[in-house]
Amino acid sequence: MGVMVTNNKSAEVQQSNDKNRATLTLTQTEYSVFLCISFPTPIAHSPMATKVNSTDTEKAANGESQEERCPVEEVALVVPETDDPSLPVMTFRAWFLGITSCILLIFLNTFFTFRTQPLTISAILMQIAVLPIGRFMAATLPTKEYGLFGWRYSLNPGPFNMKEHVIITIFANCGVSFGGGDAYSIGAITVMKAYYKQSLSFLCALFIVLTTQMLGYGWAGILRRYLVDPVEMWWPSNLAQVSLFRALHEKEHKTKGFTRMQFFLIAMGLSFLYYALPGYLFSILTFFSWICWAWPHNITAQQIGSGYHGLGIGAFTLDWAGISAYHGSPLVTPWSSIVNVAIGFIMFIYIIVPVCYWKFNTFDARKFPIFSNQLFTASGHKYDTTKILTPEFDLNVDAYNKYGKLYLSPLFALSIGSGFARFTATLTHVALFYGSDILRQSRSAMGNVKLDVHGRLMKAYKQVPEWWFLILLFGSMALSLVMAFVWKTDVQLPWWGMLFAFALAVIVTLPIGVIQATTNQQPGYDIIAQFMIGYVLPGKPIANLLFKIYGRISTIHALSFLSDLKLGHYMKIPPRCMYTAQLVGTLIAGVVNLAVAWWMLDSIQDICMDDKLHHDSPWTCPKYRVTFDASVIWGLIGPKRLFGPGGLYRNLVWLFLIGAVLPVPVWVLSKMFPDKKWIPLINIPVISYGFAGMPPATPANIASWLLTGMIFNYFVFRYNKRWWQKYNYVLSAALDAGTAFMGVLIFFALQNAGHNLKWWGTDLDHCPLATCPTAPGIEVDGCPVFK
After folding, report:
1. Partner of 220 at 20 to 30 A CA spacing, among 32, 513, 610, 707?
2. Which is it for strands 151-154 and 407-408: parallel, antiparallel or unpaired?
3. Which are the contacts of 759, defined by CB distance < 8 A and separation ≥ 6?
4. Where are the alpha helices (H) located in 327-409, listed in sequence order?
5. Is the dihedral of CA 567, 570, 575, 578 positive or negative?
6. Do the strands 375-376 and 407-408 form a parallel or antiparallel pair, or are they unpaired?
7. Which parts of this chain are annotated as the region Disordered (predicted)?
8. Cβ neighbours of residue 362 under 8 Å, at least 6 residues apart?
9. Is residue 446 helix, strand or coil?
């Protein structure tokens, strides 16, 4: 029989919730409180009821458990505080469904990153889909035990349990982290093959993919004590999965509405059918720019209203792929984070960019489109990088001096500047708000750290020795250095450049991890990595790409692994099972990720070459186009020519200092007015994240993401809380699933066979003048010339 740990404080909190339910305000804490309104603490006979030892029972009777409860209210109310160590975890079902989920998600996510509207499919899809399959296997597989070298096992050890379900989701998460929005290693390989037309061996590419992932796993193992063990590092996105696990495994009382599984199947079917419209039949739904229809001959109106090439004011997308493409699903992002992103977005798109473009003509902005991911010459034409490249993919300085300087669209240039500010703001924010906690954790790491109930329950399992992670870390470093010697001409990055990248990852992973573990947003530092190596190794674009993925991708995947480790911590998964699942999932996902990308690059003619593709082609690769642009800006031409003394964009460097200073007044105010709980929620790195990723993200993408998040996480949450807590996350998964399956079907059944529709409704953006310059004397095909 299960025993649960409770205390009077939790009862008081629940009573307070019930009493004030009608008048709640939307702080980040309250946002997550309602995840568990209908997930009460399990009783003894429930499938959720689990075991603790007799010492725990005695402590509960003496009221000692109050001190052991997690002090983060969201976690205390959502995460079960009991455990049953006897439940089987690494079963045949878990291995089979986990590996299958990993392969399916990595295929879909890799496939969609090459599209004009990329889509990242979350692991929540597989989290829901594998449940009926797991239960079916539990009902049909033989229960007979087999023996192998003295080890006894069964294909069917009993009912399909929650821990198996969690470990399957861990496998699936590997498919998301590899193929999703931050697939930088594949981005580098795509740029090398598609844009630079470089001859690259599959073995070298596999080294690049796998070593960057293993580096991330090594960093994760070292940083567990800072980003997993402390209760303050609660990783908000994990609570959505925890809540969904409980919803799927607890018996649901019959009500008038649909069950969650019924709702998921219906919503997925509708999403599947609907995506035929924006995905094929009526593509204009992807960027609905109605202002351009009202003023079809006005350049300024189209610059303002275009959702694809302009500021996107008034434009929106009715395409789920467009809504969730760059910041993930808005349905699973805390409301306070949405507000921070909205503040940054409004300031940047509606104030800063228009003023710089129309008022001050900053950086000769009016010579170029107001928003574009292309590179330009001084005359407003696209920059042809082939004219300044040597056969060894280095910069031909004489050719560059003859051809002329490189220019950026104004929004692109300002977005780069925001990256400077975001990097230093992240370091300052973490130092001020979390520095003392990190120092305290560092001092106590080797001692006896006080544990909450979750940490104490996890003590029942064998921990993973740190040297297991160190082997992966140093082994990956060694293989990376071998690659730098063996394929020296292909990768351009010398061995000391690799070591420099490793050092950068060590410095930045912890502060960025703190931001993500507390806000569910991940400030990037791609620009900084490329800025640094661009000064050290100018004129070498491939070296710049490789430095970015070794200095940045290892951090991205370290944080993904750490998030999963925290999920395993919450769900009481044995650490060694977590280690095995993450390691195997990483190896499988890496191979499949590269194989799918390699197949697409070789089989789709002119993939990613938007100047050669038909204008309706879905394979324009906007994410990888920006990766290529970055390799030109930071690697081929170099930051010294653009941002150094005499460079056109030299004043943007001041944003390093501005970003470092901005978090200070917020921290000072939070100390002066400690009773104002909303002040610490002002997060400068997250505010600056409101205009991160543009390009390739468009203002219409981000605006629609914000609008959708407001509808569900403010209005629906506030006025129909029970619907929200029951169906919100299920709807997010269903939209991902339906869109993904229809997208793949359209490609293989229609687009791959050359059956492309051509009519007014398939034009993505009816704003042809939005790409026109407005400076006098600039001549561009299809645009009027201003005198």
Report:
1. 32
2. unpaired
3. none
4. 335-347, 353-354, 397-403
5. negative
6. antiparallel
7. 48-67
8. 356, 410
9. coil
Nearest-CA neighbor of 619 among 754, 717, 775, 511? 754
CB count, 10 Å around CB of 360? 9
Distances (CA, A) of 541 to 293, 530, 534, 545, 759: 41, 10, 9, 6, 40
Closest CA to 627 of 88, 25, 188: 188
Q: Within 10 Å of residue 250's Cβ, how many Cβ atoms?
A: 16
The two tokens of residue 236 are 């908000």
Q: How far is CA 111 from CA 176, 347, 594, 697, 745, in A?
A: 12, 34, 11, 18, 12
Asked if the model's pLDDT at residue 534 lies above 60, the reply is: yes
Q: Residue 504 to residues 485, 491, 509: CA-CA distances in angstroms?
A: 21, 19, 9
In sequence order, what E strands does 654-693 have? none
Tokens (6 digits) for 433? 């708000």
Question: Tokens at residue 12, please?
Answer: 């008081």
Cross-strand partners of 382 = 376
Cα angle 564-568-571, degrees, rounded to a multiple of 5: 135
CA dist list (Å): 715 to 305, 322, 720: 27, 22, 8
Of the candidates 486, 602, 481, the one whose C-alpha atom is nearest the C-alpha of residue 215 is: 481
SS3 for 499?
helix
Alpha-carbon gap, residue 280 to 477, rounded angstroms: 45
Distances (CA, A) of 647 to 83, 531, 571, 641: 61, 14, 53, 6
208's tokens: 């690049």
Q: What pLDDT, in 10s, does the model give residues 72-118? A: 666 777 788 888 898 999 999 999 999 999 998 888 888 888 877 67
Report how far apart, in Å, the C-alpha atoms of 446 and of each of 223, 326, 462 are: 13, 40, 18
Q: What is the pTM of this model?
A: 0.74
Residue for token pair 């645009």:
783
Annotate 405-425 with b (16+ C-beta within 10 A) or e (fewer): ebbbbbbbbbbbbbbbbbbbb
Structure-block tokens of residue 656:
């390093």
Q: Given the structure tokens 């219409």, which residue do they identify? A: 700
| Spatial CB neighbours of 283, under 8 Å, sequence gap ≥ 6 | 616, 761, 762, 763, 764
Q: How many Cβ atoms from other residues are within 10 Å of residue 255's Cβ?
A: 10
**Beta carbons of 330 and 706 less than 8 angstroms apart:** yes
429-481 pLDDT per residue, tens = 888 887 776 666 555 543 445 677 878 888 889 999 989 999 999 999 999 99
Give the whole-angstrom CA distance, residue 36 versus residue 532. 46
What three-state secondary structure class fits 236? helix
Tokens of 65: 């458990």
For 573, the token pair is 């998964």
pLDDT tens digit sequence for 365-383: 899 988 888 889 988 888 9
Q: Which of 81, 67, 102, 91 is nearest to 2 (CA)?
A: 81
- Segment holding 368, helix H or strand E: none
ω into 695 cis (within 30 of 0):
yes
For residue 404, is it left (φ>0), alpha (ψ between -120 and 50) or beta?
left
Q: Please state, in angstroms and rounded to a whole number, the distance separating the CA atoms of residues 534 and 678.
A: 40
Cα(164)–Cα(168) distance, rounded to whole angstroms? 6
CB of 276 within 8 A of CB of 319?
Answer: no
Q: What is the DSSP string of 51-115?
A: B--HHHHHHHHTTTHHHHS-SSHHHHHHS---B-TTS--S-HHHHHHHHHHHHHHHHHHHHHHTS
The full length of the chain comes to 787
Q: pLDDT tier at 691 (50, 70, 90 boundaries)?
A: confident
Q: To 5 degrees, how large is the angle CA 558–CA 559–CA 560?
A: 90
Question: How many C-beta neighbours within 10 Å does residue 756 have?
Answer: 13
Phi and psi, residue 379, nearest 5°:
-90, 5
Return all residues near 672 (Cβ < 8 A) that are at least 6 apart.
none
